[in-house]
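User: Sequence in, structure out. Go.
Assistant: Echoing your sequence, followed by the structure tokens.
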Amino acid sequence: MTKFNAAIQTPFTEMFNLRLPVIAGGLMWLSDANYVSAAARAGVLGFITAASFPEEDDLRNEIRKCRELSNGATFGVNVSMLPKLVPGEKVESVFQLIIDEGVKVVETSGRNPEAYLPMLKEAGVKVIHKVPAVKYAVKVQAIGVDAVSIVGAECGGHPGMDMIGSFVNSAMALEQLEIPYLIGGGIGHGAQITAALTMGAAGVVIGTKFLVAEEIWAHEGFKQRLINAKETDTALIMSSIKNTVRALSNKTTTEVQKLEREDQNVTIEKLLPIVSGKIGKMAYETGDCDYGVLSAGHSLAFVRQIEPLQNIVDALEDEALNALNRAQALKAS
């Protein structure tokens, strides 16, 4: 197993043998073996998104490829469960596949994972559950997850309905949680990592900042669109169906917002032809970002160039350590 000298030590770095207390958030369609193994080699914790590989043989092969490329460093699998159980859902068999392949950490989201904890615990798999608010973190702490990540209003993807910012989430979590927790939403600078840690977090979740890593397979045109974007170039959509998404502003987000304003009875069925994930995947493939729900958060402010993931992590470490030195200098003698 690869051994990292932790630049900053927390319960999270100790739990997973990490260099930095950072989760490279699971990115639908994009979190494959190449990207996740790059995160592992850089000393942060990445997750293959199971939903990107709906055929179990494909997921199994991706896990095996990631293991080969990770040089013994830790990686996990993200299992995004639909908010309500639907006929034919294969969550249990996906977890069994993960167990059979010897993966030792999963990131869950979308629904309470309690029903699957016994099988995962018995296999020695650590469970990090992702939630959009501290109140949900308190609930999953009670059922026995190993850690929880709380993504605030600034995040790309699903910030939930409460829209509480990461700064407030950090202090609330300090008061209400006993298990290790991570803060996500707008995190793209190392100083923010240090700030979250000094407020009590064991680590942070980063997504948008990593979208321009060389190891992300998406078209260069997509990455350049993110580099050119500002922190204000996101839009909130789908709150009308209680599934808020923050995405890169484009023709799709404008159309969805118009529908939500004008149709008081809008449904997911009406929106699906516009917001289908397959449209977003095409944007990643072609670089045409005018259409598709392309998750991106306020940390677009810190997306500056296409470069290897290792370089991005190196810069985050330098920024975090500089911030730690500034914090230590504030203490009166």
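User: And one key feature?
Assistant: The two ends are 42 Å apart (CA to CA).
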